[in-house]
Specification:
Elements (H helix, E strand, L loop, with lengths): L3 H5 L4 E3 L12 E4 L4 E5 L2 E6 L11 E5 L2 E5 L10 E4 L4 E3 L11 E5 L2 E5 L10 E4 L4 E3 L12 E4 L4 E4 L9 E4 L4 E4 L10 E6 L2 E5 L14 E4 L4 E4 L10 E4 L4 E4 L2 E3 L2 E2 L2 E5 L4 E7 L8 E4 L3 E5 L10 E7 L1 E4 L2 E4 L11 E4 L4 E4 L2 E2 L2 E2 L3 E4 L4 E4 L10 E4 L4 E4 L2 E2 L2 E2 L3 E4 L4 E3 L12 E4 L4 E4 L2 E3 L3 E2 L2 E5 L4 E6 L8 E4 L4 E4 L2 E2 L4 E2 L3 E4 L4 E3 L12 E5 L2 E5 L13 E4 L4 E4 L10 E5 L2 E5 L13 E5 L2 E4 L1 E3 L4
Parallel strand pairs: 1-2
Antiparallel strand pairs: 2-3, 3-64, 4-29, 5-6, 6-7, 7-8, 9-10, 10-11, 11-12, 13-14, 14-15, 15-16, 17-18, 18-19, 19-20, 21-22, 22-25, 23-24, 25-26, 27-28, 28-29, 30-63, 31-62, 32-33, 33-36, 34-35, 36-37, 38-39, 39-42, 40-41, 42-43, 44-45, 45-48, 46-47, 48-49, 50-51, 51-54, 52-53, 54-55, 56-57, ...
């Protein structure tokens, strides 16, 4: 009998800790710490991703798992909106020149193409994408259609199948026009496909007759000159998603019949389709796709209602745990409108409002639980809080009957009043930085929603170097340091006008960012840095509409992130972009228990180590 060394060229090693490198896949070792043989095995799984900004179905999709594009779609009206996915979240892309849905896409984020779609005469239109803007191509499809499949690149694409009716037409695009090619053997609509270029593609599934609509499992392979029937899908379906190449593809979701939506996935190895052990968490049809047979992203679709859901598919030796919010420890004080600062293992919350009381209560958070410490000298809510757990500042706020100028500083044990007050009595103002190098800006300074643009630097004793925001507002999100701060969202006026503007402070002046918040918000939770800033929850309407949205600013643009579980506003936030706390808050879903907190943990990746046993 052959030995392990003879089979694999390596001996079984003895180690005290398991390897962390993907190169260990398929290898066997003995862990002397727990006296077991172990190995790393590949696994397939879908994991939840950040939601889109706009719910849609039947949109075009192309790119990779970490640089994907979704364009157009039915919202339920036809849209030209484009969103880009960077593997973490979505940001707004350029708008298509022709709004459409059930269009096909191919290529990459910086060199993409979309064609076909509904309504007519959109069905012949072709547009190319450069990663920023869409350009209408002078070259139209020869056969106008929607619900078609597309594969390839911006200069070597193939369009096949589609409707209305049941089409078998196939066309090739070479960057200088569309030319008809030999037709599919089976005419079909809502077809799916994959392929690296126009010379090698795979067509699978679709619907072949109506009424009633009949799903097919037919699969055909294109070699650049003809279509050949190959082994069929295990489950007939239409309107699912396909990704990959002619010899390595994946299919997930789809519709198996009127009113019946699929979550199952299948993989293609160049010869056969195999039912995958992984399934979509959200069954849906008419979804969009980008990526490969081992790393893909499924976006939007119908459940049957249109959705913003995103899921990533991975086949690898690593276990990927998506970023998510989870229930955290409850504060000892049930309140909202509190100040917060610090980290998720050394945080501080203070002040707030609840049960018709303005609190002075202060609580430390150690990563597991909250414990009450010394109170503020004066109970107050809607305050600016910044610094760390052992060196914090509380500035302004509201102590009935109104706004205050008082500033207090915390040394880790007790609060002390600063002899210098804020220049103006203010509430719902914002603070960033540290206790000796802070920045305070914006806020509400009077009745009827009167707000200020005023900003001041704080050196631990006094306020200096006044500057002005470009947009007057209160309840602003803020993240950063005294010389590098991001201000975003907020509210001004009566009736209230909710803001989405983003501004940068460089230590001297404020500059408008070309990238506003994805959605206007105020009274949200905020944390992070000026290049990795967070906005979660908050109000979005004049009537105080609470939200669960979580947005991340990555230094260039705002992208979507996994949503909070409970819609809330007036949240105390602290932490980083990968580890944050949202404490307390206000809203129907959280009342009367305003002590609830949620904790965000970013995506993690770990090698899939398995213990070998005899069975």
């Amino acid at each position: 009998m052959a030995t392990y060394r003879e089979l694999h060229g390596k001996a079984v090693k003895t180690v005290t800790t398991n390897p962390t490198d993907d190169a260990a896949e398929g290898q066997i070792w003995f862990n002397s710490t727990d006296n077991t043989f172990k190995s790393v095995v590949s696994l397939e799984a879908f994991s939840s991703g950040s939601p889109l900004s706009t719910a849609r179905e039947g949109a075009g999709g192309f790119g990779t798992q970490t640089a994907a594009v979704i364009c157009g779609g039915e919202t339920p009206s036809a849209t030209g909106a484009t969103e880009e996915y960077n593997g973490t979240g979505f940001s707004a892309g350029g708008t298509m020149n022709t709004a459409r849905f059930r269009n096909a896409g191919a290529g990459t984020l910086t060199a993409g193409i979309t064609f076909g779609g509904y309504p007519t005469p959109t069905g012949t239109a072709t547009e190319t994408y450069n990663g920023t803007a869409w350009t209408t191509s002078p070259y139209n499809l020869n056969t106008g259609r929607d619900s078609l499949a597309g594969a390839g690149t911006q200069t070597s694409a193939l369009a096949f199948g589609g409707g209305p009716g049941y089409k078998n037409n196939s066309e090739e695009y070479d960057g200088e026009g569309w030319s008809a090619t030999p037709t599919l053997n089976t005419s079909r609509i809502s077809i799916m496909g994959s392929g690296a270029n126009a010379e090698g593609c795979l067509a699978f599934g679709g619907a072949t007759s109506s009424p009633p609509t009949t799903a097919t499992n037919s699969t055909e392979s294109w070699n650049g000159s003809s279509w050949t029937a190959v082994n069929s899908l295990n489950t007939a379906r239409y309107g699912g998603y396909g990704a990959g190449t002619q010899t390595a593809a994946i299919l997930a979701g789809g519709i198996v019949g009127p009113g019946t939506i699929q979550s199952a996935a299948e993989t293609w190895d160049g010869t056969n389709w195999t039912t995958s052990p992984a399934s979509l968490a959200t069954a849906r049809g008419r979804l969009s796709v980008a990526g490969s047979s081992t790393a893909a992203v499924a976006m939007a679709g119908t459940t049957p209602s249109i959705t913003t859901a995103t899921e990533e598919y991975n086949k690898s030796a690593s276990v990927i745990t998506a970023g998510a919010w989870a229930a955290g420890a409850s504060m000892t004080t049930s309140a909202y409108g509190r100040g917060g600062c610090g980290t998720t293992t050394a945080g501080l919350v203070f002040g707030g409002y609840g049960s018709s009381t303005s609190y002075g209560n202060t609580e430390k958070y150690d990563g597991t639980s909250y414990s009450e410490v010394a109170d503020l000298s004066t109970g107050r809510r809607y305050i600016a809080g910044f610094g760390t757990q052992t060196a914090a500042v509380c500035a302004g706020g509201n102590t009935p009957p109104g706004r205050v100028t008082a500033v207090e500083e915390f040394d880790g044990s007790s609060w002390g009043s600063n002899p210098n007050s804020l220049p103006t009595a203010v509430q719902s103002n914002t603070g960033t930085g540290t206790a000796t190098a802070g920045l305070i800006f914006g806020g509400n300074v009077g009745p009827s929603g009167s707000t200020t643009t005023a900003a001041f630097e704080f050196d631990g004793t006094s306020f200096a170097n006044p500057s002005s925001l470009n947009t007057s507002r209160s309840a602003i999100g803020g993240a950063g340091t005294q010389t590098a701060t991001l201000a975003y969202g907020g509210v001004t006026g009566s009736p209230a006008s909710i803001k989405s503007e983003t501004e940068n402070y460089n230590g001297t002046s404020w500059t408008n960012s070309p990238t506003p918040l994805i959605a206007a918000r105020n009274q949200m939770g905020y944390a992070g840095t000026s290049t990795a800033a967070l906005s979660f929850g908050g109000n979005s309407g004049n009537t105080g509409t609470q939200n669960t949205d979580y947005f991340l600013y990555n230094g260039t643009s705002w992208i979507t992130q996994p949503s909070m579980a409970i819609a809330r506003s007036y949240i105390a936030g602290f932490g980083t972009s990968t580890s944050a706390i949202g404490a307390g808050g206000y809203g129907p879903a959280i009342n009367p228990d305003q002590s609830r907190t949620e904790e965000f943990t970013g995506e993690t990746t770990a090698l899939n180590v398995k213990t070998l046993t005899q069975s």
